[in-house]
């Protein structure tokens, strides 16, 4: 029997229900100027690596929502490696609710469901699913 581990990540999230779907490589994510500036600043001087299926608990300590479609993870704000996740179909209103991930491993993995919870009412208000995590590592200076 597999035990379920419940992680609560105090980060705002989604109002609609999202289900897994293939995300096309050519699919463009539209960001506001402010979101693009924030993403560019966080990834400046970093090179993308090969996507990974899971990240450790340590790598998910610092999470930043750039937009409904882009969420960053790292050990700390200015980590050597920052992981970029583009949840399948996005997570609408990611800045308004909290993410609760039910995981069967020691980290976050592609395919894990994220339940969007209103912590004030304790009501689940939606969900989304993690895609692959793309590592962006600081370039050697």
Q: Could you tell me how far the N terminus lies from the C terminus, measured between alpha carbons in angstroms?
A: 48 Å
What is the radius of gyration?
15 Å
What is the overall silhouette? globular
Helix content: under 10%
- Secondary structure tally: strands: 11
Keywords: Signal
Signal peptide: 1-21
Q: Can you offer a commentary on this structure?
A:
This protein is mainly beta and 141 residues long. The protein has one domain (5-20, 45-138). It contains one helix and eleven strands; from the N terminus they run E-H-E-E-E-E-E-E-E-E-E-E. The chain has one helix at residues 33-43; strands at 5-9, 46-48, 54-56, 62-67, 70-74, 81-85, 98-103, 107-109, 113-118, 123-129, 133-138. Strands 2-11-6-5-4 form a five-stranded antiparallel beta sheet, covered by helices on one side. The chain has a four-stranded antiparallel beta sheet with strand order 1-7-9-10, with no helix packed on it. A two-stranded antiparallel sheet has the order 3-8. A hairpin with a 4-residue loop joins strand 9 (113-118) and strand 10 (123-129). Residues 1-21 form the signal peptide. Keywords: Signal.
């Amino acid at each position: 029997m597999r035990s379920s581990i419940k992680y609560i990540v105090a980060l705002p999230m989604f109002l609609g229900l999202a289900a897994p779907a293939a995300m096309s490589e050519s699919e463009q994510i539209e960001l506001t100027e402010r979101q693009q500036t924030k993403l560019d600043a966080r990834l400046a001087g970093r090179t993308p690596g090969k996507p990974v299926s899971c990240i450790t608990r340590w790598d998910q300590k610092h999470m930043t929502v750039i937009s409904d479609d882009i969420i960053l993870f790292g050990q700390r704000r200015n980590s050597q490696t920052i992981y970029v996740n583009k949840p399948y179909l996005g997570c609408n209103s990611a800045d308004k609710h909290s993410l609760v991930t039910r995981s069967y491993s020691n980290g976050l993995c592609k395919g894990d469901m994220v339940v969007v919870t209103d912590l004030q009412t304790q009501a689940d208000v939606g969900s989304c699913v993690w895609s692959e995590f793309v590592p962006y590592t600081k370039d050697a200076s």
